[in-house]
Amino acid sequence: MCADLYPDLKSIILNVFGGLIVSFLTWAVIRLYDRLNSIKFKKLFGGTSLELIKLVYGRMVLQTCYDENRTIRTHPYTKKGNSMGYRVSSILSDTEAVSMKYLSDAFSKNTKKSPELTSDDDLTEKINLSFISLGGLNNWKSIDVLDSEENIFFKFASNDTGHVDRIVSVKDIAEFYRITRTTDFGLIIKTRPKQFPSQVHFCVAGIDEAGTRGAAYFLSTKWEEILKKTKGREFGAIISVKNGSDESAELIRCVPKPENSYLKKLLQRLVKTFKWKSQN
Questions:
Q1: What are 85's strand-pairing partners?
Q2: Who wins on pLDDT, 176 or 13?
Q3: Which of 247, 186, 209 lies closest to 96 in space, CA to CA?
Q4: Residue of 278 and 173 predicted with greater confidence
Q5: Contacts of 215 (CB under 8 A, 6+ apart)
Q6: Burial, 69: exposed, middle or buried (Cβ in 10 Å; 0-12, 13-18, 19+)?
């Protein structure tokens, strides 16, 4: 009877041991995948400064419902020190709240940490930090990115009535993306300030609210697509999105910053020198 028991016991031990090995290998593969994914995520979003990155929303104030002519304001929100009006669903708009959640979830998933949330008014004069600003001209940090000399990509443009209705290329105004009744456009811009090149500044904004949400959704869920095109360099991207459907967001244009031409020329010169010495 004991002789019959030992083979069964041996089989049980082998099965348990094999199960432990499979479990460990599965855990190791998952950990390795997460680690590699985190490295790629950090390459796009800023490397060593990533842990200190901030999500910045635009703080606005509500004007009186009627203007000086007793006409109902269609864009009742404004910024302190700015006469331009904005139309949002609340002072912290649902669009910015949803956009922040998209990006916060992406950071939690890929780095196990969530960025700090703060308002643009708290960071008005600060440059030496990494951030992702949400919203366009209603956010001081977005304006910093859009107006910076490092932004060689895209900017917003207004129609004859003064309302923003399109995104244009900084280098070629003939290249533009105009909002329609069914489709909005958003931009994603990544720059590094020349004063603090270790920091990264992102602007995620749309012509209208759908564009901002769509751009934030795309950046948070399909960031690898952008990484493949930019290799981690600064860039400007255009996202199209159908109104009412963040998941319809689609990348239609991506412009990476050109590689350092001086470094490239230097490497080419070194290669030529090496070849010349080898031949002689």
A1: 78
A2: 176
A3: 209
A4: 173
A5: 99, 186, 187, 188, 204, 205, 206, 239, 241, 249
A6: exposed
